[in-house]
Amino acid sequence: MKTTQHTAIRKRLLCAALVVTMLLLSACSAKTDGKTAPGAADAAAPVTTDATSATAAAEDGQLPTLSTQAIPDESPEDLVPSPTEATLPTETAEKAESIVSGSCGKDLSWTLNTQTGLLTVEGSGEMDDYDSNSYYSMAPWFNFSESCRDAVKSVSLPEGLTHVGEDAFARCESLTSVTIPDGVASIGDGAFSFCSDLKSVTLPDSLTHIGDYAFSFCSALTGLKLPDSLTCIGDYAFNECEALTELTIPAAVTEIGEYAFCRCIALERIEVVSDNPNYSSVDGVLFDKAQTELLTYPCARKAERYTVPNGVTKLASGSFANGSAVKTVLLPDSLTSIGYCAFSNCFGLESIAIPNGVVKIEEATFSHCSSLSDVTIGSGVKKIRESAFNSCTSLKSIVIPDNVIDLSDRVFESCSGLESVTIGDGVTYLGEYLFWDCKALEDVTIGSGVTAIISKAFLGCSALKSLRIPENVTDIQAWAFDDCLRLRTIYGKAGSAAQAYAEENGLAFVAE
Questions:
Q1: Rounded to whole angstroms, how far apart are CA atoms 190 and 213?
Q2: Going residue by residue through the chain (512 aa), what tens digit of pLDDT does each one get?
Q3: What is the dihedral sign for C-alpha 76, 77, 78, 82?
Q4: Burial class (CB in 10 A: 0-12, 13-18, 19+), 318
Q5: Main-chain dihedrals φ then ψ at residue 20, nearest 5 degrees
Q6: DSSP β-ladder status, 246-249 and 255-256
Q7: Are 230 and 248 in contact (CB under 8 A)?
Q8: How far apart are CA 507 and CA 512, in angstroms?
Q9: Using CA atoms, how far apart are residues 502 and 469, in angstroms rounded to an integer?
Q10: What whole-number distance in Å separates Cα of residue 113 and Cα of residue 395?
Q11: Could you tell me the residue ranges of all domains in the chain?
């Protein structure tokens, strides 16, 4: 019964709503020439009703009583906004949302149009430094884009700017050109690093300092002119600027950092203004002024053979790294020092002889020289550091002379073509992962001075079948020969650590 009654009430309410709608439409239709048509006075007013009374009346089976109020003297068309009026608020909102701004220095402000990618900096003084690797410390304009790589497409910098902040435009991958205005004295560390589409940079005559990594990984950068005012080029400043073909070092430059031009694989020449008191160039190769230190051998220099001038005592870190064409480098007797990674990734290098005056072969000096097959180690070398010959896959044999006393970890790691090794009597221990993954290694002679074979020294030497271990070896650590799947026999002195290791690991032992 209740359900039937409720249904009837809902029907009556719907009828009331229909009547209200019809009256409103009649009121609108009855107006002519700005006056209400006869008989339409009552209909020309909006209908209102009290909800409580309407409900009560509906429950009694009657329609609600209607009351009227005057409506404005407007036609239905006047009540509907024009298309322009309807879209204007939305367009204004979108325009407002596309412009974001803030401060980027004590007296500097910035504005970014997020639709066009134009970043405009205004004011004067030093720009703040940022850290692109920290969400909380990155440049503020990166907070208004789903990807910081696309946020900034072009930059306008003010004449009053004196310092471009660290990492300010790092990873702006859509940025193609930038003009640094006159008055800027320094470009901070990493300021334009990883701007992979950046092709053109104009530097001002006021510039004195280019920070570490400032243009690192700007792989499209070409035709860069360093200003006469420049005094300092930081570490890795132009690292992996793969399109640079030549550079000229101005007269005022007093400092060029390590690996400043590392992996500039198209770089053929580096010239130096003749009156520079600190640096010089010989045939496009960069030296210090006295030509006692070779700093950078351009990666794309075309000569297959190069002789380092006599009188050079030092090869700087990374000096020949990534050289693509050079096959043979002749080192002078005057040489005493070879820096870190000096020849790393010289894929064409085939032979090298270390002079007797060199005391140490540094870390990764010849790493990934995949064509290197002939190595002679001089009589003065005492130490061979970590990964010195890592991944020299063409190296088939190596002799470590008696003068070497320190053979560090991973020196011959992944030398997959290495078949024969002779370790001199001066070496006292074989480092961790020393011959890791030398899959072809079959013949190993260990010198009498070795007292310890460190864990994983021969890890993965799957071709090694037998090994002679001197009696002075008192410590053979666990997993020293792990994954040497063909190792069956160890030769050594009865009662020695060699015999104990063989018995513990199920290997045959032959006493000598």
A1: 5
A2: 434 444 444 445 444 444 444 444 444 444 434 444 334 334 333 333 344 443 444 444 443 333 333 334 444 344 333 333 333 344 444 444 589 999 999 999 999 998 899 999 999 999 999 998 888 899 999 877 655 567 899 999 999 999 999 999 999 999 999 999 999 999 999 999 999 999 999 999 999 999 999 999 999 999 899 999 999 999 999 999 999 999 999 999 999 999 999 999 999 999 999 999 999 999 999 999 999 999 999 999 999 999 999 999 999 999 999 998 999 999 999 999 999 999 999 999 999 999 999 999 999 999 999 999 999 999 999 999 999 999 999 999 999 999 999 999 999 999 999 999 999 999 998 999 999 999 999 999 999 999 999 999 999 999 999 999 999 999 999 899 999 999 999 999 999 999 999 999 999 999 99
A3: positive
A4: buried
A5: -60, -45
A6: unpaired
A7: no
A8: 16
A9: 11
A10: 57
A11: 2-77, 99-274
What own/partner pairs with CB < 8 Å and gap ≥ 24 does 173-179 have?
Answer: 173/149, 173/197, 174/117, 174/149, 174/150, 176/200, 176/220, 177/201, 178/202
Closest by CA position to 493, among listed 461, 457, 468:
468
- Compute the distance between CA of residue 347 and CA of residue 374 in angstroms, rounded to an integer: 14
Tokens of 85: 């009026």
Q: Does pTM top 0.85 for this prediction?
A: no
| DSSP state at residue 20 | H
Kindly state the tokens that stand for 439. Answer: 């899959």
Residue 209: CB atoms within 10 Å: 18
- Distance, in Å, from the CA atom of 371 to the CA atom of 396, rounded to the nearest integer, reads 11
Closest CA to 410 of 439, 386, 392: 386
Classify the C-alpha dihedral 501-504-509-512 as positive or negative: positive
Return the CA Rg of the chain: 40
CB half-sphere exposure, 225, CA atoms < 13 A: 8
Q: In terms of C-beta density within 10 A (0-12 exposed, 13-18 middle, 19 or more buried), how is residue 416 classed? A: middle
Fold of 99-274: 3.80.10
Q: List helix spans (H) across 66-202.
A: 76-79, 83-98, 148-151
CB 147 within 8 A of CB 172: no
Element (H, E) at 27: helix 2-29
Antiparallel, parallel or unpaired: β 374-376 and 443-445: unpaired
Residue 82 tokens read as 């024009």
Sign of the CA dihedral with 164 first, then 166, 168, and 169 last: positive
For residue 122, report the phi and psi dihedrals to the nearest 5 degrees.
Answer: -130, 155
The torsion angles phi and psi of 134, rounded to 5 degrees, stand at -120, 125
Q: What is the DSSP letter of 82?
A: P
